[in-house]
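Good morning C.,

I know you're traveling, so I'll keep this short. The sequence:
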Amino acid sequence: MTQTVEALFDEGIERYKAGETPDSLIPLFKEVCDRSRKNSSAWTCLAWLYLLSDKPNAAYEAAQKAVKINPQDPQARVNLVLAMLDASKSGVRQHIEAAQQVMMLVPELQQEVQQNIADGLARKANWKSLERVQAWLFES
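The tokens, ready to paste straight into the viewer:
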């Protein structure tokens, strides 16, 4: 029997939290995105995995889809900014400002983004673009 999209997504999150490599999780999240095209959380996760795997162009495409589906998700915006920085694209300021605005209104989302940044820095040491984003979001 085929797993539901929700079960597949939850499995992917649990495997990520257990320390599985991003490269091994990308196919699972691609399947979730293929089966549930309007699931912004899945696109956000896929973009994050691509970023951790040094695939900024693929991350950019996934993050763009996530932001298009849910423009109020600050993590989707952060992922888009990271992909833009890692792929040497311009135009990050508007996405940083949008993420800051949402996080000011919803403190829980700010906490979530801070935790994700800490996780990203732990998984990918010396991630310069993530360090820049962290400074822009939380040290200004």
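Safe travels,
E.
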